[in-house]
Write a structure and sequence with these properties.
With 296 residues, the chain is α/β, with parallel strands linked by helices. The protein has ten helices and ten strands. It has one domain: Divalent-metal-dependent TIM barrel enzymes (TIM Barrel).
Length: 296
């Protein structure tokens, strides 16, 4: 990793550039899932939840030429950053959740959307962007879209490299197939944004998938399952084993909570996200921080 990207990572973690150590694992929440999409109140709510940071979304797409983002305004960006600093929170990543429902392979103007997200991340000192390929870009169901997706992700990778940021893509592919996709894209700035739920919903073992992908391919993790039960009550999720697996491959980074809400009280944000945050911290927090390695 170049030194400039290393410094951006520190800022995104809420640490000073003079620090030589960062926690091995930190916990964030998605602003759109805590019902605070592009709202400055997401930071105070994340603090109340007990999280270390927030994954900030770029806003909706709809039929617009780009994201409906207030973060293109330097004043608004400054307010978001000031609030995060005031509360001692990091910004784990900038999300392009509009592509959950939009086709990354077919939508016109994708290069502008990606660039707007990259520019926002760069301006806010955030090193990672989240790009879900979504339902309409599901390569398991729509393999015919692969050439277009690869071409567009190669271009997005070039955009990201120029700004020293990394785009984490979420696909429905298994780890072996996703690794092959990343090899085909061939960019150091396009990596896997791993999601527990994708593995589980497709009958795959989380730890085996993590091991197959390996440390260098995983940039960030959505550490939750589909809704129904908290992480601590979910028989499909063995967090101690997952932690052991991540430590075995020497991975460190942000664990971002997206779902795993209790079915009976799914709309109660504090009730669900506070419980999941507390459990992740109980399992993942360690006394010894990870030492930043020189990956130049």
């Amino acid at each position: 990793m170049k030194r400039s990207a290393w410094l951006i990572c520190l800022l995104g973690l809420g640490l000073s550039a003079s620090s030589a150590e960062i926690p091995r694992f930190r916990v964030a929440v998605c602003d759109w899932m805590i019902l605070k999409r592009q709202k400055i109140g997401a930071f105070q709510l994340a603090k109340d939840i007990g999280a270390d940071g927030v994954e900030v979304d770029m806003g909706g797409l709809g039929d617009r030429p780009t994201f409906d983002s207030k973060l293109s305004d330097p004043v608004a960006r400054g307010q978001f950053l000031a609030k995060a600093q005031e509360l001692g929170l990091g910004i784990s990543s900038i999300a392009m959740s509009g592509f959950y429902a939009q086709s990354f392979a077919e939508r016109e103007g994708v290069d502008r959307m990606v660039q707007d997200a990259i520019d926002t991340a760069k301006a806010m000192g955030v090193a990672v962007l989240y790009l879900p390929l979504g339902v309409r870009g599901d390569l398991a169901k729509h393999p015919e879209l692969r050439p277009a997706i690869v071409t567009r992700l190669k271009a997005a990778g070039r955009q990201a490299v120029e700004s020293d940021v990394i785009i984490g893509i979420e696909t429905s592919l298994d780890a072996k197939a996703e690794s092959a996709l990343l090899e085909e894209i061939g960019s150091t700035a396009v990596k896997s944004y791993f999601n527990f739920a994708n593995a589980l919903q497709n009958g795959r073992d989380i730890c085996s998938e993590i091991t197959t992908l390996g440390r260098d391919r995983i940039v960030q993790i959505h550490a939750s399952n589909s809704d129904g039960a908290w992480l601590q009550n979910d028989p499909q999720v063995d967090l101690p084993k997952i932690k052991t697996t991540l430590e075995a491959i020497r991975w460190s980074g942000w664990l971002v909570i997206e779902r795993s809400r209790d079915a009976a009280r799914a709309h109660e944000v504090l009730f669900n996200f506070r419980a999941n945050t507390a459990y992740l911290k109980q399992i993942f927090e360690t006394e010894k921080p990870a030492i930043i390695q020189n990956h130049e």
